[in-house]
């Protein structure tokens, strides 16, 4: 359970605990002795699934422990963390599957001798009936698996008592019974695979389903603000706020009452009771929403190892593309520490050359290429990229620490970094521009009186009206 940071340091110092980081870059301690008691408080996890983004919140009755914003791989896009803008769109999961199917068919067609009769051709026979399948489509399954993996890591640290899942029930066809429902058959992509996800989550803890309108009412009662525009922004007001509201529903709920029974309830809100006729609904329970660490989570956009090319290579020498293995002992997605010109950078391994290793930041934008001798491994690839953007006001007093991030560079260090990446032919132009800026700055710094004195001295010097050093010393 969360404890004071000073107590955690004391336990680690005395050898009674071991400090570790999990896959979400959360710092926790593992006791090396038998505790005096194993009582825990009930903790709930709220999951707000979506098509491109998801929100997760961990809540107890007194504290908000963890919030997260997930970038789902439904459409694989590189989004700038903190700005919510898509920078370099790449292939979605659906398009990747179509490309893989086309490449597989091309391979099979190349090995068939079409000069033979159809009965003698080496067609692959159907091994089983796969025309009717109830599998979850890969694009939806990849998103649900990311949510399940994050909650699985949270269950290893927190004693999760329940998981609250926002169940999507879209009103899009005539089967809903609504008068103004749209005609035809349709559904929301979020609805696909949610029963499969609930089945997988039920293996971790009991799952409670909540509808969207229930989440909205509870969020308004708790006074939590939600940002409905620019849903891709990585801030707590977009999706993680719904995760916190869902988790808080295990400690507060909108329940029916009667006038006599309402007086006996503990912790019930009396708002609306006096004006009722003896029956109605009111909020029951107590929960406290506090500041908590906010973490952005996504999968590293690594291409799988390409076994075959789109076009057959002459000679059979296939070029290497994709995969996670590098030539220097690192894997793509490893959390590393790199050094260059005395400046240290922390990021994720994203590629390699013959002598260098590429290190990228949380946006998967390459910081620079470093020599393999200047790169140090911090943590092996976990299949997740996590970064703590915001820390709560009281989070420094808990065991959890902020994820290590790249040290902020000043302007001079940024200039040195950019100069190292500029080609040699452009360095002379850069030097001329720097000298021009420096000279203009010196001229602008001189007052009008000093400028007049310098001009008069130049005229006297040109006219010969000046004293030499020998005359001045006499």
Give your account of this protein's structure.
With 474 residues, this protein is of the alpha+beta class. Among the domains are: 216 residues, Nucleotidyltransferase, domain 5 (2-Layer Sandwich); 49 residues, no CATH class. The chain has 11 helices and 18 strands. Strands 9-8-3-4-5-12-18 form a 7-stranded mixed beta sheet. The protein has a 5-stranded antiparallel beta sheet with strand order 16-15-14-13-17, with no helix packed on it. A hairpin with a 4-residue loop joins strand 4 and strand 5. Helix 3 packs parallel to helix 4 and helix 5 packs across helix 6. The longest helix is centred in the N-terminal third of the chain and has 20 residues. It is extended. The protein starts with a helix and ends with a helix. About 9% of the residues have low confidence.
CATH topology of the domain at 5-92 and 136-251 and 287-298: Nucleotidyltransferase, domain 5
| CATH class category of the domain at 5-92 and 136-251 and 287-298 | Alpha Beta
Strand content: 15-25%
Element pattern in H and E: HEEEEEEEHHEHEHHEHEEEEEEEEHHHH
| Gap between N and C termini | 86 Å
Mean pLDDT: 77
Tell me the Rg in angstroms. Answer: 32 Å
For the sheet with most strands, the description reads: 7 strands, mixed
Shape: extended
**CATH homologous superfamily title of the domain at 5-92 and 136-251 and 287-298:** ATPase, nucleotide binding domain
Strand order of the largest sheet: 9-8-3-4-5-12-18
Structural class: alpha+beta
Uncertain residue ranges: 77-90, 263-276, 392-407
State the helix count: 11
